Amino acid sequence: MRVGIEVGGTFTDFVRIGPEGVRVVKVPSVPSSPDVGAFNALVKSGVAITEILDLAHGSTVATNAVLERKGFATALITTRGFRDVLALQRHNRTRIYDLEYQKPDPVVSRADSFEISERVLSDGTVLQPLDEQQVVEALIPALKQGGYEAVGVCLLNSYVNPAHEVALRDLIKAHLPDLHVTLSSEVTREFREYERASTVTVSAYVQPVIDRYIARFEDRLAEEGFSGRFSVMQSNGGRLPAQAIRDSAVTALLSGPAAGVMGAARQAARSGYGNLITLDIGGTSTDVCVVTDGKPELTNEFTIDGLPIRIPVVDINTVGAGGGSIVWVDDGGMLRVGPHSAGADPGPACYGRGGDKPTITDAHVIRQTIRPEAFLGGEMPIHPDASRAVFAPIAARFGMSVEQAADSAIELANANIVRAIQLISTERGKDPRDYVLVPYGGAGPLHAAQVAEDLGVGTIVVPPNAGVLSAYGLIASDFVQFESLTRRAPVDDNAGDLVREVFESMKARAVERFEHLALGGDVKLDFIADMRFVGQAFEVPVTLSEDDVRQVDRELISKMFGQAHEKIYFFGADSDKPIEFVSFRLGITAELGELPLLQEERSYRVPRGEIELFDRRRAWQGTLLSRSDLAEGETLSGPLLLEDPTSTLFVPAGWQAVTDEQQNLVLKRMA
Amino acid sequence: MPDGISTTKLDPVDYAVVSQGLIAAAREMGVKLIRSAYSNIVREASDASAALLDRDGNVVAQAELIPMQLGPMADTFRACAELYPVSELQEGDFYINNDPFAGGQHLQDVFIYSPIFVEGELIGFSGTVAHHLDLGGGNPGLTATAADVHAEGFIFPPSRYNYRRDWNGGPLERLVAANIRVPAQTIGDFNAQFAANAIGMQRVQQLAAKYGAGTLKAVMAELLDYSERRVRAALRAVPDGTYHGEDAVDDDGITDEPLVVKAAVTVSGETISVDFAGTCEQVTRNLNCPFSSTVSASLSAIKSVLTSSDIPFNEGVKRPISITAPQGSLLNPNYPAPVRARMEAGYRAFNAVMKAMAQVVPEKVIAGGNDTTIVTSISHLEEGRYRVYLEVFGGGYGASPNVDGCNAVDAPLSNCANTPIEATDMDFSHFRIVGYGLLPDTCGHGKHRGGLGFYRRYEILKDDVNFAIYADRFRLSPYGLFGGTDGERSRCFVERNGEVIEIKSKDALDLRKGDYLNLYTAGGGGYGSVEERDAADIVRDIRHGYLTADTARQVYGAEKVGG
Questions:
Q1: Which of B409, B432, B434, B537 to probe the A interface (max A CBs under 10 A)?
Q2: Of B210, B228, B246, which residue sits at a domain end?
Q3: Would B181 be classed as within a structural domain?
């Protein structure tokens, strides 16, 4: 039996897949102790812990530690002359007209930043040896006195030659064996000292948090007789055994959204869909991601609370449009949706908890695309009158009915979501029309059809139990680890050999690291070269298959780069300008043997019947039914409202719905 | 009547969606221009901008990349359209202009506009501007002693050309390439501009295909009115009256005389005007600020102080605002004044407007900061090839009524990122950066303190290394406001064999192997009196070493600081 437990900000989702079928549970999260929420879900599910073979977990514990600055006392050690690297950052501003601009607040303060005499040059040679005496006589006593739990080390040019970082760790460990020491060269071997220092300090900062959390979780599991495999989700879309994540805590940041993308990718692949745009609409925000050939796009440019983290993560774009997003009219008379949200408390007006601003959820209640009786499986009372009351001023302002005002708000929210998708598709040279849309989360399936229409997407694939897809994603994910390496070199006649040499050395190191995890089975490799025209400052990723690596030469790599550049920037393919490699990334994956089968949980039932609803500026007669009522192969035309225990799915007029043999609900736009 | 939506026939949803689509398209153009550019000024300093314009050349939506580019798009366009009417344009044509005396700023900023046709009808333009690394002129990069604008580089007068015929291997491209020093990179940056224009064109055509050209044109018109309404609403909240402000550039690099800038800001109902009468005359060196730059600096001050940051910038924003400066003055120089270092006077225009507004909206302004573009160049001729390191620095921000000024950050009118030390280590062998850090005690004090300046320390590794700088605030301190004290000034000096050689704010010097070059940048002024400073903030500043305990005791008193 396999179990996935995903702890989100508001709810903890649980999926169990075993011979007895699928069981889905949703319980409120316990923000102060995510593990308590996780075990509550386990208890509620009635699953015997001793029967679980594979337990995969994702939680917000690392993310919250950073956002709330609740990590342990952490120090940073830099090369002498550069202790202010975290305070200086990149010298630019993210809000250019903000006179009160403040930089992102690093997790390690200036008082906790230390320097040590040493200097390595960019070719790896040592200009000044590590001053060991200074380490022993000054640095170590200071670290001891500071009462630090963790220390991050970022020495200049350590991405080329990490010897000083390693020697420094050995010295510290010899004197202070209980201190967690994290080296920048082991977290990300890429140049740009601020980004690397930021990555290593955040990594060091969350290390003890994750370590203790995993230890506590494992203890509890052991008490309950658990003997299966316990793994934890990462932000790169793969998981790692819990023991390994204790040494790689930074990869656990923002793993929840990545789990959802993986769940969508795996479940859609079952029905033969490899190219998808995922759409996860929650209470305050929407996450979108592009998956090509079954693989989510990865990015190396990721920030948490404004702090850069240079590790490969699933490239998820987030926009402040969700059920709680507030609908308002600005001082120029424009109708707006978000980014402010009513949150969970007071929440939308229809919750009856004092919310007095119109929200997207209220708009759905007015349009009757959310049925009050069915909200959260009927477990929460909803007040439609309150929704109408808060929308009345907007309706009056624009001289429209309350239904029209609510419908306009939904259209605008959808437009915001469409732009978020265009940012990661059209703007990156990917045509959304080559993709299917995969909605999930509480409200994804409600908005999917209109979003698809605006993007020109003709097919929507709604996975079963779409409201808890992230939890499924946990157990459907492979085991993955990434390596990175900066190696600036011109693309010349030697390019093929260079690529092969880098590939082989990164592969050897990755395989060795991976073997320690004892996962067994075959491994797969992903290899990406980050390249640019000489003189540019930003790189374009070029993905190389193992076949490409074997046959690559100057001509082939130039062509591949030129095409990748042109797709994004509208020029480059036919250029004869010099090109250079900047860095390389290698991912190693142990694929899951057999994918667990996600199916509808059939306990939820609503009688099939006629309903009235408002959509796209007019009223419609539609059909209401439980999603599980739609028999395999049965085709129905919209307007339809399909409910399951975790979400509501809206099929507007002009779309047909059919359940396929994988229990994905496939919507097709009628010509 | 601010409630304009109800008076138009536009559907509110179409309007909101299409207008956001136009803004998104302009932003995409700008981001891609920067990311694909070669010039380090474009890619690190974001010294570029992109916009969509209507058929008449009104900027409808602009990528907000650098405040200094807020003004000139419409003016450089109009200079072209007056000579080559819009009605005669064909597909593939483009306008080009970099003339500081025809709407432009300095020659390095070249503006290019491409017409957008939908089913044969010209409905608007996509336009971009980028700072080009080298456009000829007296010296590579920087010509501090240029006697006139001709010594500063290649002038594109307002003109019309055709991409297929004249660029792309055609005569204009060949002419430009022959007159500049690094044609591969510079032509590459021009191509990035053309590509960004093509992106904007495609996005507008996609919007037109979906919503119709009629709706698109109506949205463009409404978007201008919308921004205008929001600016007018903000201006209504400001009490009427005329307010004066004054600041000065340290000197012109030749004499020790400050270059005074005076602003009279008049708020009247829903309008605001800025007049720079009383400002000093234009100078012989490159510190002259073309009028277009004066406009950008003033608009940036007004926008930052008075209006909400989410008002989309377009021509509508400018309608209630008028800006004038005497012809022949530092802020509106006559041909053929050299203008390369326009930013310094531009900053003083920004400061003068800010000081004037401090009298009427004290809760919205900040104290003086480093507010200077410090441009440094360390170059070396190596095996017949120039190695040019150019970097632009800021310093501390002025304090506000609510927060301490930001430490060590670029100044308000620009937005340059630093070059990573590891990148300079990789790229240059004639110097090495050996220190980069905050400068404690450089802030002005008060209820809120200014931001700290920072230092850079370079070890020179070869003989015959050339150093050039233009900067400011070496003599005149960043000012405090409402009892706050002044910030520390900038300083630059070289250590050579135990001797210290002071460098002026506009200066050049040949460096030798073994020299240490030091740059200290200015800290921001304080806001409010030191008596009002929270003791906990002082303790924090001492703990983090932003203030030394000695300075804290001197400024805030031993009883407040303790010990």
A1: B409
A2: B228
A3: yes
DSSP letter, residue A537: S
Nearest CA in chain A to B45: A92
Domain count along chain B: 2
CB atoms within 10 A of CB B382: 13
Tell if the CB–CB gap between B46 and A92 is shorter than 8 Å: yes
Residues of B in contact with A102 (CB under 8 A): 403, 406
pLDDT digits (tens, 9 = 90+) for B28-56: 999 889 888 876 667 666 778 999 999 99
Q: Which residue has better confidence, B134 or B13?
A: B13
* Planar angle of CA A116, A119, A124, nearest 5 degrees: 140
Closest-CA distance of chain A to residue B184, Å: 8
Show residues of chain A in contact with B366, CB under 8 Å. Answer: 99-100
Give the fold, CATH level 3, of A479-590: Dna Ligase; domain 1 (3.30.1490)
A/B interface, count of CB pairs below 8 Å:
207
Q: What is the pLDDT of residues B182-205, one digit of tens each?
A: 788 889 899 999 999 999 999 999
Query: Cβ of B63: how many Cβ atoms within 10 Å?
Result: 28
Alpha helices in B263-382 (DSSP H): 291-306, 315-318, 342-358
Residue of B nearest to A565 (CA): B36
Q: At what angle do helices A384-398 and A360-367 cross, to 10 degrees?
A: 100
Nearest C-alpha in A relative to B189: A536
Contact, A115 vs B435, CB < 8 A?
no
Tens digit of each residue's pLDDT (9 = 90 or more) over B290-301: 999 999 999 999
Q: Which of A87, A408, A569 sits opposite B438 (nearest CB)?
A: A87
Query: Which chain A residues touch B197 with a CB distance below 8 Å?
Result: none
CA-nearest residue to A101 within chain B is: B406
Does residue B13 sit within a domain?
A: yes
**Sole residue written with tokens 């850069």:** A308
CA B421 – CA A156 distance, rounded (Å): 8
- Per-residue pLDDT tens digits for A636-648: 998 999 988 778 8
Model confidence over A32-45: pLDDT tens digits? Answer: 888 998 999 999 99
Taking residue A34's Cβ as centre, other Cβ atoms within 10 Å add up to 23
Instruction: Look at residues B208, B228, B248 and tell me which one is the last residue of a structural domain.
Output: B228
Tokens 């408002």 correspond to: A614
Which residues of chain A fall short of a pLDDT of 50? none
B342 touches B375 (CB < 8 A):
no
Q: How far is CA B491 from CA A368, B374, B505, in A?
A: 67, 11, 8
Nearest to A412 among B17, B303, B435 (CB): B17
SS (H, E, C) A42-92: HHHHCCCHHHCCEEEEECCHHHHHHHCCCCCCEEEEEECCCCCHHHHCCCC
User: How many Cβ atoms from other residues are within 10 Å of residue A522's Cβ?
Assistant: 8
Domain with CATH 3.30.1490 in chain A: 479-590
The CATH class of A67-211 is: alpha beta
B157 exposure class (CB count in 10 Å sphere: 0-12, 13-18, 19+): middle
At residue A428, the pLDDT reads: 85
Contacts of B375 in chain A (CB under 8 A): none
Residue with tokens 């959260």: A376
| B16/A334 touch (CB, cutoff 8 Å), yes or no | yes
Q: CA–CA separation, B200 vs B357, rounded Å?
A: 37
- B15 shares its domain with B162: yes
| Out of A97, A100, A427, closest to residue B403 by CB | A100
Alpha-carbon span B559 to B531, nearest angstrom: 12
Q: Which domain holds residue B66?
A: 4-228
Q: Is residue B493 domain-resident?
A: yes
> According to CATH, where is 3.40.50 located in chain A?
67-211
Mind telling me how many Å the CA of A601 is from chain B's nearest CA?
Answer: 38
